Amino acid sequence: MKDELLYCPLGGAGEIGMNMNLFGYGQEDDHKWIMVDVGVTFADDSIPGVDLIYPDPGYAEDKKDNFLGIILTHAHEDHIGAITHVWPKFKCKIYATPFTAALVTEKFREKKIDITSYLQIVQLGSTINLKPFKIEFITMTHSIVEPNGLRIETPAGSILHTGDWKCDPNPLVGDNMNSKRLIEIGKEGVLTMICDSTNVLSVGRSGSEKDVRDSMLKIIEKQKKRVIVTSFASNVARMETIFYCAEKTGRNISLVGRSMHRIYKAAKQCGYLSDVIEPIDPRDAKNISSEKIIYLCTGSQGEPMGAMNRISNYIHPDVFVEAGDTVIFSSKIIPGNEKKLYKLHNQLVREGINVISEETDFVHVSGHPNRDDLKDMYEWIKPNSIIPVHGEQRHMLEHIDFAKKLNVPHPIKVENGDIVRIFPGDSPEVFDKAPYGKIFLDGNIGVEEESKSIKERRNISQNGHLDITLIITTQGNIHNTPIVNFMGIPILNTEEFKISIQDEIDKIAKSFSLNNKKQDENFKDALKVTCRKFTKEKTGKRPITNINLVRI
Ligand SMILES: [Zn+2]
Ligand SMILES: [Zn+2]
User: Fold this and answer.
1) What's the 13 CA to ligand 2 centre distance in angstroms?
2) 429 and 344 in one domain?
């Protein structure tokens, strides 16, 4: 029997976020497995109290004994964000390049786990041997330093897993894209390319960090007062650009927000940002006149706890903004965040603050490949088949069409959980489905979407909560009046509500023999139904209701 080469995305196919990919090689039911990337996605307001979501790794966990390691392509949260939640289930080796490894180490340190003996630092451009896989890290360009494509070589042939990338001729920080090696890999033959689809709907090229730098300098040179720039902390080139602009315009720079400091530290540690001016503490920056300072802060998406939001609301302890100042949003307005962001923009312009964003000026480029960038990659790799990932349905379907137009013999559309047999066979095919799903990080605990805790909170947030305590005497009478507490129910006259609900309770109590303890559960159920119905009639809300019976 021939060995098989399998691919299965557990996250990231059909969405932009929570990337998790599995590759398997070997005889049926005896494959060796590797995992590429362990990312998160951010929850929206529909899931109250949950911030992070990641793919359910259960299918991979079942194969733990044949599991060779986790490989991380780059340090964006949608690729490494779930590592501290998923790794404890595997306790396997993790492979990452220095900058990614620095941030991963920090994440584990926050969880009080010393990961050093499991974390293997891979030098850029090198190859690791995880028999039967040989994995070569190929330097790409993206919106973070050290983005790696992976050439996954097996006895059956090679896969190119591009990771996130674009063609940036001037990435400013870090190495250039290794297109020379990509061309060689193409010549050696690629069975399947698994490729970033984020910008497949965008024509032309996604542009260079150098062009953003030139434009930012022109904009900042014109400013007479305070300049506040907000962008993704992880974009080290953008960070360096702001340092550069500060130096060129004779300003000091101050970093604001935890992740800005974290990335600055990790970048320095890995030898990046070696040639920039020294940032000053925001507390010291307060004493510098406004035309001599640039702040670079977190919160470019209007995140409630981000520095930008706190500055705009005048609740930041160290950074102040006033009429005549300029705020530059040097980042993409991510779909879904428009409301939050425009609210912030409105707040600022109302105060006479100048707002510059990608809508008004050239202050941002994407980190993902537009169509001309993709064309280059297809030209270099000439894959036998292509599997689009890192996209919503609309991106992935367009990517399939795109590949067809470029005459790729076998474009394959996958969804999370699809198991693709890449070898043997002339063309890859989806032949099975793995169990897949999402894990919601609720507090410290990973739960399913339909978990009791999330359902209850969603229910309470919609309908409110009613809590009634009855004290029953030894004679089987209700002692005093019931204790009625409620939250989140629009009751205008509390006393009147309590008296009338008490009447309802009395009516129900009459139909039960309260001496008989065996009746308690039925009594509680009847009270619950009645109290909810009564509240619904009075207020239109059917609250989560809790009945306590206390016997004395
Ligand atoms: Zn990325
Ligand atoms: Zn990504």
Assistant:
1) 11
2) no
Distance (angstroms) between ligand 1 centre and the Cα of 80 equals 10
Residues with CB under 5 A from ligand 1 (ion): 76, 164
Verify that 138 and 281 share a domain, yes or no. no
Cα of 75 to ligand 2 centre, how many Å?
A: 9
Is residue 11 in a domain? yes
Looking at the structure, tell me whether residues 215 and 178 fall in a common domain: no
Ligand whose nearest atom lies closest to the CA of 391: 2
> What is the whole-number distance in angstroms between the Cα of residue 141 and the centre of ligand 1?
10
Listed as ranges, residues in the chain with pLDDT below 70 are none
In a domain? residue 271: yes
DSSP H or E stretch at residue 134: strand 133-139
- Ligand 2 centroid from CA 196, angstroms: 8
pTM above 0.90, yes or no: yes
Residue closest to 406 by CA, chosen among 385, 389, 421, 427: 385
176 and 28 co-located in one domain: yes
**Shared domain check, 198 and 125:** yes
| pLDDT given for residue 217 in this prediction | 98
Give 79 Cα–ligand 2 centroid separation in angstroms: 6
Ligand nearest to the CA of 147: 1
Instruction: Give the count of domains, the chain.
Output: 3
Q: Which ligand is nearest to the CA of 100?
A: 1
What pLDDT is recorded for position 513? 78
Angle between helices 371-381 and 393-405 (to 10 degrees): 50
Ligand number, closest to the Cα atom of 76: 1
Number of Cβ within 10 Å of residue 30's Cβ equals 10
Ligand nearest to the CA of 19: 2
The span from the CA of 111 to the CA of 186, in Å, is: 41
Domain of 95 in residue numbering reads as 4-204+366-447
CA of 428 to the centre of ligand 2 (A): 24
Instruction: Report how far residue 362's alpha carbon sits from residue 423's, in angstroms, rounded to the nearest whole number.
Output: 46
Q: What is the CATH number of the domain that holds 78?
A: 3.60.15.10
Say which ligand is closest to the CA of 37. 2
Measured CA to CA, the distance from residue 96 to residue 38 in angstroms comes to: 12
Residues having C-beta closer than 5 Å to ion ligand 2: 78, 164
| Structure confidence at residue 169 (pLDDT) | 97
Per-residue model confidence as pLDDT tens digits over 515-550: 777 888 888 999 999 999 999 999 999 999 999 988
Domain of 547, CATH number, reads 3.10.20.580
Judgement on whether residues 518 and 435 belong to the same structural domain of the protein: no
Q: How far is the CA of 81 from the centre of ligand 2 (A)?
A: 11
pLDDT at 361: 97
Residue with tokens 């069409």: 401
Residues pairing with 120 in the sheet:
95
Ligand 1 center to 305 CA (angstroms): 22
**Same structural domain for residues 400 and 469?**
no
Helix (H, G, I), strand (E, B) or coil at 6: strand
- Ligand number nearest CA of 196 is 2
Q: What is the DSSP letter of 416?
A: T
Q: 215 — phi, psi (to 5°)?
A: -70, -40
CA triple 129-132-137, angle to 5 deg = 40
Distance from Cα 38 to the centre of ligand 2, integer Å? 11
Residue 515's pLDDT is what?
A: 76
